[in-house]
Amino acid sequence: MRLPADSVCSNKEQPDVKLETVIQLWDARNGKCVGTLTGHEDEVLDVCFDFTGQFVATASADGTARVYSAGTQKCIAKLEGHEGEISKICFNPQGSRILTGSSDKTARLWNPHTGQCLQALEGHTDEIFSCAFNYEGNTIITGSKDNTCRIWR
Questions:
Q1: 8 A C-beta contact, residue 142 and residue 130
Q2: How far is CA 85 from CA 47, 61, 88, in A?
Q3: CA pair distance 41, 115, nearest whole angstrom
Q4: Positive or negative: CA dihedral 43, 88, 30, 52
């Protein structure tokens, strides 16, 4: 199942689940919840869709990221390797890579289907709070609390 392009993703408190650990998918046209994503042990700090709308990636203060099928709401990959909270996550334009930024001062490149870490980008001296791919997906930029941005090719 592919969600409509105008679906939105948000965190929502559940009575029996720790605050902000559950992600709910909402249909922006009618305001109804169309799915719930679970599995994180601490608050979710960032979420994103891939360009097709078929996958959702989440970043958490528990130090993990996860990739879910938007249609089935099943976790298909758990991304583990950061040593601190993950504050930012994004897919490349092709949907074949995920980029995460963390308080451990690294950004990491992942295979979204297997959860394998492909590369750790090291060099910042403080937390990375922003990261993005360029339009072609062959260049990465990271922003850090060390007051620098780095371009990675």
A1: yes
A2: 14, 4, 9
A3: 18
A4: negative
pLDDT, tens digit (0-9, with 9 covering 90-100), for 41-52 = 999 999 999 999
pLDDT tens, position by position, 113-141: 999 999 999 999 999 999 999 999 999 99
Question: pTM for the complete prediction?
Answer: 0.88
Contacts 24+ apart (CB under 8 A), 28-33: 28/4, 29/4
Q: What is the C-alpha separation between 12 and 149, in angstroms, rounded?
A: 32
- Look-up of token digits 């990375």: 128
For residues 44 and 9, is the Cβ–Cβ distance under 8 A? no
Half-sphere exposure of 6 (CA within 13 A, CB side): 6
Are 50 and 3 in contact by the 8 Å Cβ rule? The answer is no
Strand 55-60, strand 65-69: pairing: antiparallel
Longest dimension (CA), the chain: 45
